[in-house]
Amino acid sequence: MAKKRGNSESSIYQMNDGRWRAAVSIGYRDGKPRRKTFTASTRGEVADALKKALRDQQQGKNIMPDRVTLQAHLERWLTDVVKPSCSFKTHETYSDLAVNHLVPGLGNTLLSKLTTAQVQRFLNEKHNAGLSPKTVKQIRDCLRAALNVAVNDWELIPRNPASKAKPPAPQKTELRVFDLQQARSFLDLVAEHRLNAPVLGCSLSRTTTR
Fold it and tell me: Are 34 and 26 in contact (CB under 8 A)?
């Protein structure tokens, strides 16, 4: 039989196997009480965990996030948030990003276990697989928006692991211009074309403005 220790510490007790356990009440679900438990080999470890949990609870933090996977959260977010409040095109874009990229790559991960390092590695892998920086950024933005709801509105997790993940830098396009000989060759080539006048006018305009 478990041994309770002191009236002021009634939520800390020692189990038959010698380990210590603490329990914190976190309300009710479907009329049944819910409790978060902590188990450790020493009473001090359990007491520290209990103290932190009570402090977090007083600050309004969710100390026992539901075992929600990223896939389940994305599906709920798309249905309950994006579809009613965004355009059809936005909903379609986010749905495609979720189905084609986020769910296959991270969908089975619990929200409470998802880390910034994991998200960053996922983005890097997408880029290395050939996706453009723009597409990878869209994937990151979609994930960040979904997790912002998990943090700020539904209080499923304390922080957004996608907020500090960095998409690849956009590629810089090198501007290529004709040298004098190339310009003359090009103008000779289009001399008989019906667009010769507009092309020549544009070329002269660029020349006079330099």
Answer: yes
pLDDT digits (tens, 9 = 90+) for 98-142: 999 999 999 999 998 999 999 999 999 999 999 999 999 999 999
| DSSP SS3 for 34 | strand
Task: List the CATH code of the domain at 70-152.
Answer: 1.10.150.130
For residue 174, CA distances in Å to 132, 150, 171 come to: 17, 41, 9
Cα dihedral 66, 29, 9, 42 sign = negative
Rg (C-alpha) for the chain, rounded Å, is: 29
pLDDT digits (tens, 9 = 90+) for 23-73: 888 776 667 777 788 888 999 999 998 888 888 778 766 666 667 899 999
Is pLDDT of 210 > 80?
no
**What is the per-residue pLDDT across 98-108, written as a single tens digit (0 to 9) for each?**
999 999 999 99
Instruction: Identify the CA nearest to 107 among candidates 64, 137, 78.
Output: 78
Q: What ranges do the domains of the chain cover?
A: 3-58, 70-152, 180-209
Q: For the chain, first and last CA: distance in Å?
A: 91
